[in-house]
Amino acid sequence: MTSTDAEIIGGVLDRWKSAVDAHEPQRVAEHFTHDVIFQGLHPYSVGPGSVAAYYDSQPIGMKAEYRLLETRRLADDLVLGYANVDFSFTDRPTRNVFLCVIARRVGEVDWLIAHYQVSQL
To answer: What is the mean pLDDT of the chain?
Structure first.
């Protein structure tokens, strides 16, 4: 049985969210490819080490709630996902952003984030 594009992106984002919510930067980074292009709300970086550093710098207690808006199959092993994300904090207002990810299949069943870009409108 093959997964739908929404199931693939939802699974990737659920694993990402779980690690973000637990403030486990190394576990967050495990959900990204070795050559990920990562653009949070800071200048872009490449590789999971920079992802771990980015999430390590986020405040403890930060949580992510996402709503998947769109998906597109780019190739057999690439799926694009576009989501609205609320990042909540213990000491400041919630920050609403839009997140675009491209998930790449690695191996037979595992999907990892190969591109991550946040924008705030």
So the answer is: 95
